[in-house]
Structure formats: C-alpha cells, structure tokens
Write a structure and sequence with these properties.
- This is Glutathione S-transferase.
- InterPro entries: Glutathione-S-Trfase_C-like (IPR010987), Glutathione-S-Trfase_C_sf (IPR036282), Glutathione_S-Trfase (IPR040079), Glutathione_S-Trfase_N (IPR004045), GST_C (IPR004046), GST_superfamily (IPR050213).
- The chain is built from seven helices and two strands; from the N terminus they run ββααααααα.
- Strands 1-2 form a two-stranded antiparallel sheet.
- A hairpin with a 5-residue loop joins strand 1 and strand 2.
- By secondary structure, it is mainly α.
- Helix 2 packs antiparallel against helix 3, helix 2 packs parallel to helix 4 and helix 4 crosses helix 5.
Length: about 170
Amino acid sequence: MPFIVTPEGKTLAQSGAILKYICKKGGLSPSDSFDEAQADMIVDGVNDLRVAMVKAHFQKDEEEKKKLWKEFFETTVPDRLGKYEALLKSRDEGKGYFFGEKLTYADIAFVEFFQSLKVNVDIQKGKEKKEDIEEILKKFSLLYEYYKRVLAVEEIKTWIEKRPQSDY
C-alpha cells in the first residue's frame, strides 16, 4: 500500500489521498469546492477506466480477454472520452485545462492514464503504442489537443524525458 510521511511526521496512506494532499500543497487543486468535486469526479472516472483495463489485461481466458479489450476500446473508452470532451469544452471552449487556465490533479490523472494505456496497448496488441492511443484521442479533437497541451507543460515534459525507463 502506498504511503508517505509528511514533513511534520504524519503518515498518510492510499494513493488518492496522497495525490490530493500533495496537489493541494503544490497548488494543483481547484480553489472552488465544486470544481474540486468535479476534479474528483474526473479522477474517479479515470480510475473506472483503469479498472476496466486491468480486468482485460489480467483475464486468463483468451477469448474473454479479446472480448473485454474489444469492448474497452470500441465502447467504454469512446463513451467516456465523449463525456470528458464535453466537460473540457464547458470551460473556455476547451482551450485550456479541465478547469480553465489552471492545471490540476485531474489533468495529470487523465493524461497519466493515457500514458500508461500506451504501454498496455503495446503489450496486448503488439502494435506501435503511440499510434493506437493517438488514433483514439484524435476522434475527440479537443481532448487530443488538450492531451498534447498537458504533455507540453515544461515540468511534465522534462519529467517524461528524464524519468527512469520502465516497461510499465
């Protein structure tokens, strides 16, 4: 189980609680309580996608695995992306982040999921991972531009370039 010990010596466990604590300290949380609830909604929705992905990934029966991946890529992901794109468009016509000009933990969680999905697609389909994810996202032009915009944030771009390489 993930945990951190704060500078004050307090222990905090669970990845969601840690995410919110660190982001609040680092200025990556929405300042409005309703916006924060919507950010949590986005993160919870991303986690729902992650659960569906993990279910397909670890399915032992090959026929069932194919069925789950097909449903994931052809139904689950497009349906969810349509909802995310509508939410993004509701702020500044989708020209910024989920909460306008302010980058938040919801933006990071969303983009991180699709970064991790790249690896999973590569493992499952044996295809060039970047093309698959970008093809899915390109069907949602606002989200695709948003995805690229988040990845272009200098600190995120630098981390991606310098982070330790992993198969996961």
